[in-house]
Specification:
- The chain contains 4 helices and 6 strands; from the N terminus they run ββββαβαβαα.
- It is α/β, with parallel strands linked by helices.
- Strands 1, 2, 3, 4, 5 and 6 form a 6-stranded mixed β-sheet that branches.
- Helix 2 links the parallel strand 5 and strand 6.
- Helix 3 crosses helix 4.
- The radius of gyration is 14 Å and the shape is globular.
C-alpha cells in the first residue's frame, strides 16, 4: 500500500489528511495560506516529511465556479516539487460533509479542522473508488 495524502485547497487554508496504512485516514493540521508560493512550499515539506507517494487532490465538479477553481487548483499543483503520483478526486460536497461530521465537536470554525476533515473525506472517497474498481 502506498503512503497517501490528500489536500483540499482553499483560499485561506489547505486541508490535509494522511493515509499511511490500510485505509485509515487521519486529518492533519491545515496549512495556512499566506500566499501561493509559501503554501506550495509548506505542502511540499509536508509530503516530504511523510514520504508520500501518492497525492489525492480535491477538485470541484459541477457548480458555477468549478472551471475557475479547477484551473487554480491545477496551477497550484504545478507549483509543487512533489514527484510522486498525483490524482484528482471529485470533492463535491466534501466540505458540507465535513461540517456535518464536525457538528457538536467544535464551535471554533476557523481553526482549519473542517478543511482537513474535508481532505479526509476526499481521500476516503478515493480509497472507496479504488476498492470498488478492484473489488
Amino acid at each position: 500500500m502506498k503512503k497517501m495524502a490528500s489536500i483540499d485547497i482553499g483560499l485561506k487554508r489547505i486541508g490535509v489528511a494522511l493515509c499511511l496504512s490500510m485505509g485509515i485516514v487521519s486529518p492533519q493540521e491545515a496549512i495556512l495560506r499566506k500566499n501561493r508560493d509559501q503554501a506550495a512550499r509548506d505542502v511540499d515539506a509536508f509530503l516530504k516529511e511523510w514520504n508520500i507517494e501518492l497525492l489525492v487532490v480535491g477538485l470541484p465538479k459541477g457548480g458555477s465556479s468549478s472551471e475557475e477553481m479547477e484551473r487554480r487548483i491545477k496551477h497550484f499543483v504545478s507549483l509543487l516539487t512533489f514527484n510522486g503520483e498525483v490524482v484528482y478526486q471529485d470533492e463535491y460536497g466534501s466540505s458540507h460533509e465535513a461540517k456535518e461530521m464536525m457538528q457538536g465537536i467544535t464551535r471554533q470554525k476557523r481553526d482549519g479542522r473542517i478543511d482537513s476533515t474535508a481532505a479526509k473525506v476526499i481521500l476516503e472517497r478515493y480509497l472507496d473508488a479504488l476498492k470498488a474498481n478492484h473489488g
